[in-house]
């Protein structure tokens, strides 16, 4: 299977503005930001999309959400607020087939969410 | 601390259209749907918002995402796609102070996500 852009970012083969990394997740700025702060956080394990995660991925998914909140707090968004978004499949505009959580903040986010 | 609307839904004290429930999560239709399918899935544990989740909540958060994907698939959204949204704090329009994941599908979701 071809490696995705995000795998290449994690491997430092494609440059990105990485803001956080640990053994199982990596967070970097979206190159096409939709808000003053727009960061992506991804599991290092190449799960293509949420619907293909398995029961064995439960702990990495939980860690992904906990670290998304940490990254948002470190970006100064904890008090003002932030929106997390996961896109699955064509109706949601899923782009790169490597599970990723969008963290958006620094402005008022409207409703509906797209 | 006052119990939230979602705690009352889980306790069957407030009616809701519950579509899935297990020991640790409950999913029900949003009363103000923003897409043809709009379901909320919440942990039964009353975590006020993602930023207040603790390390000990990792497994329930992972389970929440896995079950969100299951609920979306059972709603027929797996192939067409769906968007998951978590709102934290005022800029995101967080409403009920009980962590919840929005599952939206059945139409094309625009970008940016609000």
Architecture overview:
- 2 copies of one chain form a homodimer.
- With 114 residues, chain A is an alpha+beta fold.
- Chain A has one domain: HIT-like (HIT family, subunit A, 2-Layer Sandwich).
- Helix content of chain A is 20%, strand content 25%.
- Chain A has a 5-stranded antiparallel β-sheet, with helices on one face.
- In chain A, a hairpin with a 3-residue loop joins strand 1 and strand 2 (25-29).
- The first copy, chain A, is globular and about 40 Å long.
- The relative contact order of chain A is 0.22.
- The model of chain A has no long low-confidence stretch (mean pLDDT 97).
- Strand 4 of chain A pairs antiparallel with strand 4 of chain B, so a sheet runs across the interface.
